Amino acid sequence: MQPVSAQQVEIGLMLGGSNYIGDLSNDYFVPKETHFSGSLFGRYNINKRWAVKGFMGYGQISGDDKNFGSFRNIARNLNFTSDIYEFSVHGEYNFLKNNINSISARPFLPYAFGGIGVFSFNPKTTYQGKTYELQPLGTEGQGTTSLNDFKKYDLTTLCIPIGLGFRQKIGDNFFIGVEGGIRFTATNYLDDVGGVYADPNIVGAAYGDVARVLSDRSIEIQLSNGTYENWNKKGDARSVRKYLDTDMYFMAGITLSYVIRSKGMACPQF
Fold it and tell me: Which residues, at least 6 apart from 7, have a Cβ–Cβ distance to it below 8 Å?
């Protein structure tokens, strides 16, 4: 019987959902803000316990103060959506040995993974029927004359994926499974909220009237009620994080992968 290598390659995809935890989720997971996500990956099985995976994923995240009834959220009146594009490398550890080289085996493989990657995001909101990208508007005074040392946040930064999954062999060359992972990030601005209120007149002078309005949207609530008072002042907290200093996002879904075998794998292994 012809010997085979214990090192094999898989290619696959994951379809599922994405979500986030941050300032506009009140530091909690909000199920109604879950959106579609899709990913492609390639896995290299180093041995029966360890594998390395390249991951390329897309998801969408969103948050809205209207999901919460507290005065703080009503007064802030912010919302956002953002597309996420992730490129990462994961190290995987199989809790059970992977007999991938045995065509006759039908292994069940629970695993854990951790890694590092980069991702891009771009928070947006809708105002008077038009969608605006928020980062260029410096809504917390970033890059204005009086705050020129306060730079605009980067739209591409690092993430650390950590999660669990399992996969079940369903044929000679296919695995189906479920995977879910959290992404710790290096930014507190997935939602464009991370600091304090700036003087709206300064923001407006630098970036225009739309930027001035979007820097403090509480006036929309007040005017709709026929009243106005200065709820938020320069220097008041726009971000009131209690638990974490940075935002995070999730990706989870059903996976399907295909094992690419060499010609020497035509003979079953027992």
Answer: 44, 45, 46, 47
SS3 sequence, 202-221? HHHHHHCHHHHHHHCCHHHH
Q: What is the DSSP letter of 139?
A: T
Name residues of the chain where pLDDT drops below 70: 1-7, 100-106, 222-233, 262-270
Q: Residue 237 domain-assigned?
A: yes
Domain of residue 110: give its range: 8-266
SS3 of residue 222 by DSSP: helix
Q: How far is CA 34 from the centre of its chain?
A: 11
Residues pairing with 157 in the sheet: 119
**Closest by CA position to 238, among listed 57, 78, 7, 70:** 78
User: What does each C-alpha distance from 8 to 1, 40, 50, 261 come to in angstroms?
Assistant: 18, 17, 11, 7
pTM assigned to the model: 0.89
